[in-house]
Amino acid sequence: VVMPAGAIANLVAWHHGEIGGGAGTRVAQFTAISFDVSAQEILTTLLTGKTLVVPDDAVRRDAAALTRWLEEHRINELYAPNLVVDAVAEAAVESGAALGELRVIAQAGEALALTPRLRAFQADRPWLRLHNHYGPTESHVITATTLPGDPATWPATAPIGRPIWNDQVYVLDDALGPVPPGVVGELYLAGAGLARGYLKRPGLTAERFVADPFGPAGSRLYRTGDLVRWGKDGQLVFVGRADH
């Protein structure tokens, strides 16, 4: 995937505007460098004066060890997939780890499951904010939502949110027509965060990046293959895959 620098710059600017933080904020560099979320972790940290704290591989592989490490290193922000977030929540509840410095958990890469243990973890830490970030490699993060501090107000299913700055999302039918709120359609992406295409694969690029009927001449949509619907609150809800 060929991603222009402007897309990353847009992501960093949005992230800083929404998440905040600065000098003194300690961010865990948890994500493997081969996963695109690592670019968000590293660049949003170093470009805004935060401190990047790197665990070793043994800590990354063990939820109990990771939970102790988060406590010992006074980590303020953690970016991790759903399975890791849920495992840390379970380990913290079982061990009694306060994680009192942890202010932000951002989940990406998987569907966020609002399990009973995650709800219990949040209930004991009302200062913590759980963010759900969505986006394929072809756009990186393109929608996001922040769950309330009180898990009693959480929905049964976590939404994937609304588009970030300078990006657009469309829920369309097979004829590229918008579907009404509540109706399931395929998610298409547009805007500053879109990749240029696939390196030396023009056929696949033409298949997945199609002409944008809603934008100016020459603009494109990325066809995600994800099925979603608009919720009553104006946020997107992930339903499944079109190819399953």
UniProtKB/TrEMBL annotation:
<dbReference type="InterPro" id="IPR000873">
    <property type="entry name" value="AMP-dep_synth/lig_dom"/>
</dbReference>
<feature type="domain" description="AMP-dependent synthetase/ligase">
    <location>
        <begin position="2"/>
        <end position="199"/>
    </location>
</feature>
<keyword id="KW-0596">Phosphopantetheine</keyword>
<dbReference type="InterPro" id="IPR042099">
    <property type="entry name" value="ANL_N_sf"/>
</dbReference>
<dbReference type="Pfam" id="PF00501">
    <property type="entry name" value="AMP-binding"/>
</dbReference>
<keyword id="KW-0597">Phosphoprotein</keyword>
<protein>
    <submittedName>
        <fullName>Non-ribosomal peptide synthetase</fullName>
    </submittedName>
</protein>
